[in-house]
Amino acid sequence: MRALLALLLALAAPLALAHKPSDSYLGIRVEGASVSGQWDIALRDLEFAIGLDDSGDGDVTWGEVRAHHTDIAAYSLARLKLRSGGADCSARATAFLVDDHSDGAYSVMRFVASCPAEVTTLEIGYSLFADLDPQHKGLLRLEHGPATRTAIFSPERATQSFELEEISALTQFFDYGREGVWHIWIGFDHILFLLSLLLPAVLVFEGGRWRPVARFPPAFWEVFKIVTSFTVAHSITLSLAALGVIALPSRLVESAIAISVLLAALNNVFPMVHGRRWMVAFAFGLIHGFGFASVLKDLGLPQGTLLVALVGFNLGVELGQLAIVSAFLPATYWLRASWFYRRLVFVGGSLAIVAIAAIWLAERAFNLKIISA
Amino acid sequence: MSRSATVIRTFRTFIIGMIIDIARALAIASFAAAAQAAPYVPENDATVLERLPVRPGDSVARELRRLRAGLARDPRDLEVALRLAERYFELAGAEGDPRYIGYAQAALKPWWDLPDAPAGARVMRAIVKQYSHDFSGALRDLEAATREDPKNALAWSWRAAIHMVQADYAAARADCEALRGIETELGAVGCMAYVDGTTGKAAAAHRALAAALARDSSASSTTKVWVLTRLAEMSLRQGDAKKSEEHFRAALGLDVRDQFLLAAWADFLLDQGRPSEVMAQLRDWVRSDILLLRLALAEKALGAPAAKEHIQALKARFDAAALRGDKLHLQEEARFNLHLLGQKEKALALAEENWKSQREPRDARVLLEAALATNDPSAAKEAFDWLERSGHEDPHLRQTAEKLKTLKR
User: Fold this and answer.
1) What is the pLDDT of residue B32?
2) What is the pLDDT of residues A322-350, one digit of tens each?
3) Hey, of A129, A135, A184, which one would you mutate to test binding to chain B, going by the most B CBs within 10 A of its CB?
4) What does the alpha-carbon distance between residue A76 and residue A152 come to, in Å, rounded to a whole number?
5) Phi and psi at residue A49, in whole multiples of 5°?
C-alpha cells in the first residue's frame, strides 16, 4: 500500500505547498564602520533547530522564548558572517522582540556589529538552517545611507558581497534632514505641544474670556514668535546634547516633555500665562531639544560628519514644523469665530491633549504601559 | 556628472522621500491607536506565541526524534535516512507545510548530488525535486530508479503522478501498467482509474475503482480517503452531483486530517452555491493557504465581514512568496486575483504561466475562466487543445470553453 500512499501525495502535489516555506528576514544597516541589524526568524524554525517548547505542550510561550534568547543569539549569529576589508565584524545581540508575519510568530533579534574600518564592501555569509532545511531562504534588506537593496540567500548562494556606494556629505545632509521631518511628524508629543501653543494664536484673552482676533497679521506674528523661539531653544539643547556637552537621563527628559504638553494645553482651558507664550515655547523648547537629540543618537551619528548630520536633522525638524504650521494657521484663522473652533477644537482639543499628556506622564515617569504607542 | 546635477538629483530624492513620509506619517497617525504591525515585547511570559503542529510528546514526534538520533549517529545510514524522509513527506501531506520537504532533503544530504545514488535515494530525491516543480530532474531520477529496480512501485507511482501533471497520458498509462503485479490491486487500479477518469472515461474508471475498493478490506483510512475523493471527482465529471456528495461525505466520515479532501469538498460546495457550508467547515484552517483561499471565496460570496481580513492575509502570503522568488502557487494566485481581487489581466498572466508547468484539470479551469473574464479566447488556446486531446468530461470546464468559443465569433 506504500506506493498508493505515494501516489496520493504526488497527485496532490500541486496543492501541497499550502504554507509559506521557511524564510528569515534580515535587515542590515551600515553606517561608517558600524553595522546594525534586525533578524526575524520563525519560531517554528527555531523550535526545530534548538527546541523552544520546554514544557512540551505544543505551545511556544513568550516565557519559553525568553529563556532561550542566549541560545537563539548564539545559534543564529554563529551562522551569519559579516566581513569587511578581509576582517570579521563580530556581532552581538542587543534586544529581543516578537513580530507576527503572515505565517506565524517570529523572534526578532536586534544586533550590532563593528567592523575595523569604514565599510566599503560588505561580505555576508548566511548559513542559517542550511544543514537542517536546505530550502530555507534568508531575505536580506541592506540599507546604506539612502540606498536600499535586497538579496536572497540560499545554500546555493550562501555568500554574497555588496559594494556600498560612497555617501557624499550632501546626501547625508538630506538624509538626516528627512529623518528630522519624519521625526517631528511621528513625534506626537512635539506636535501636541506646538498645537497647544498655536491653538490660542487666533484668539485673544480679554475680560476673562477668549475672543477671536480681528485681523490676520497679529495672529501670524504670534505664531511666528512661538515657532521661532521653540526652534531656537530646541536647537540649542539638541546641539549641546548631540555634541555630548550635556547629557540628561532619558526618563527625565521624556517625563518633562509630557509635563510641557500637559501644562501648555491646561493653560488654554485655565489661562495663567498669556501674552508671552513665546517664552513658554522657549523654556519648554529647551527640553524638547533633548528629546530630538536622543532620536539623533538612535540613528547613529556619523563621526567626522557630525555637524552635517546635526544641521541636516535640525533643519529637517524645522521644515516639518513649518509644514504643520502653514497648514494649521490658515485653517484656524478661517474657523476662529465659529462655535466649532472655540468650543470643540480649542477647549475640547486642549482637554484631549491634557488627557493624553497625563497618560504619557504616568507611563514615562512610572514606567507603566497604559496605551501602546 | 556636474555638481549642480547631483544637487538637483539629491534634492529630488529628498522631496520624493518627503512625500512618501507624509503618506507614512498619515498612515501611522490613523492607525496609532490600533495595533501596529511592528515588533513588540509580549505582555507576559504566559502569552502563547505559536502553536506547534506536532507536540514533542506525540508518537509521530517520538519516532522522528528516534530516526533523527539514528541519523545523527550515522548520517550515511540509508535505511534510516529513507524512513525519515518518508515520515516527513507524510507530514508535509497532512500539514501542507513545505518545511518538511526541506527536512527530508537534509536527511538525504549524502546522496543528494551523487550521480549513481541507489534507487531508494533517487526516488526520495525525485520527490523533493518535484515539490519544487523540477519535474524533469525528478523524472530523470525516477527513470534511473525504475531501470535499476523495475519492481520499485514507489518510483512507478511517482512517474505516473508527474506524467499526469504534465498531461502526458500515454506515459502515465504505461507507468500504471508497470504497477500491475508489483502493487496491490487497489493501487494499480487506482492509478489507471486516475488516468482514465481525467481522459474522458470517467464512468468506466468510476466503476473499476469502486469495485476495487469494495474488494479491498485491508485498505487504510488514508487510502480510502484518497479513493473516495477520486470517486467524487469522477461522479462530478459525469454530472452526478448527488453521487459526488455521497462519496465526499463518506470520505469526510473517515475522520482523516486531509487538506486535499477539504479543498476538493470546498470547491464542490462553492460550485454548488453552498458557501455557508464552506465557512463552517474551514473556519479553523486559516493557516493553510489553499484552504484559506476557499474560505475567503465563501466569505466573499456571502458578504461576510471576515472576507476582507482573509483576502489581506492571502495577499501578504503571495507577496511573501514573491519576495523569496517562488513560483509554486501560480494556480492559486491566479484564482485569488481573478475571484477575490478582480484583477483579471494579472490572473490571466498567472494562469498562462502556470499552464507551462502544470496541466491538470484545475489548471485548465483557471486558465479558461481568466480568458473568459478578459474576453480573450486566444489566451486559452492551449486549454482548448488540452480539452480536445484529453477528452476530459467536466461539465463546468466544457461550458466555460463553449462560452469562450462563442466570444470568438
Assistant:
1) 39
2) 888 888 888 888 888 888 888 888 888 88
3) A135
4) 17
5) -80, -45
What is the Cα–Cα distance from A107 to B182, expressed in whole angstroms? 49
Q: How many CA atoms does the CB half-sphere of B267 hold within 13 Å?
A: 18
Compute the count of residue pairs across chains A and B with CB atoms less than 8 Å apart.
260
Nearest to A58 among B11, B38, B55 (CB): B55
pLDDT higher than threshold 70 for residue A196: yes
Residue A100: list chain B partners with CB under 8 A: 37
d(CA B49, nearest CA chain A) in Å: 5
Structural element, H or E, at residue A111: strand A104-114
Helix or strand run (H / E) with residue B278: helix B275-282
The answer to whether residues A193 and A264 touch, using CB atoms and an 8 Å cutoff, is yes
CATH level 3 topology of A169-366: Growth Hormone; Chain: A; (1.20.1250)
Residue of B183, B260, B289 lying closest to A19 (CB–CB): B289
pLDDT grade for A183, boundaries at 50, 70 and 90:
confident
CB contact under 8 A, A104 and B50: yes
Q: Which residues of A touch B17 (CB under 8 A)?
A: 146, 178
Q: Is residue B23 scored above 70 in pLDDT?
A: no
pLDDT of residue B12: 60
What is d(CA A263, CA A283) in angstroms, rounded to the nearest whole number?
12
Residues 6+ apart with CB under 8 A from A149: A141, A142, A162
Task: Decide if A19 and B40 are in contact by the 8 Å CB cutoff.
Answer: no
Look at A15 and B191 and tell me if their CB atoms are within 8 Å: no
Chain A nearest-CA residue for B3: A170
Contacts by A70-76, CB closer than 8 A, 24 or more apart: A72/A41, A72/A46, A72/A96, A72/A107, A72/A109, A73/A109, A73/A111, A75/A46, A75/A49, A75/A50, A76/A39, A76/A41, A76/A109, A76/A128
pLDDT of A12 strictly over 60: no
Q: How far is residue B298's CA from residue B122's CA, in Å, rounded to a whole number?
A: 42
- Model pTM? 0.68
Non-local CB neighbours of A182 within 8 Å, separated by 6+ positions: A316, A320, B21, B24, B25
Kindly report the average pLDDT of chain B as a whole number: 88
- Do B98 and A19 make contact, defined as CB atoms within 8 angstroms? yes
- Cβ–Cβ under 8 Å, residues A257 and A288: yes
DSSP state of A301: P
* In chain A, domain spans: 20-163, 169-366
Å from A131 to nearest chain B CA?
6
A175 Rama sector, left if φ>0, alpha if ψ -120 to 50, beta otherwise: alpha
Cβ distance of A152 and B154 shorter than 8 Å? no
A13: pLDDT strictly greater than 50 = no
Q: Residue A275: which region, alpha, beta or left (left: phi > 0; alpha: psi -120 to 50)?
A: left
pLDDT tens digit sequence for A19-67: 677 889 999 999 888 899 999 999 999 999 998 988 888 899 999 999 9
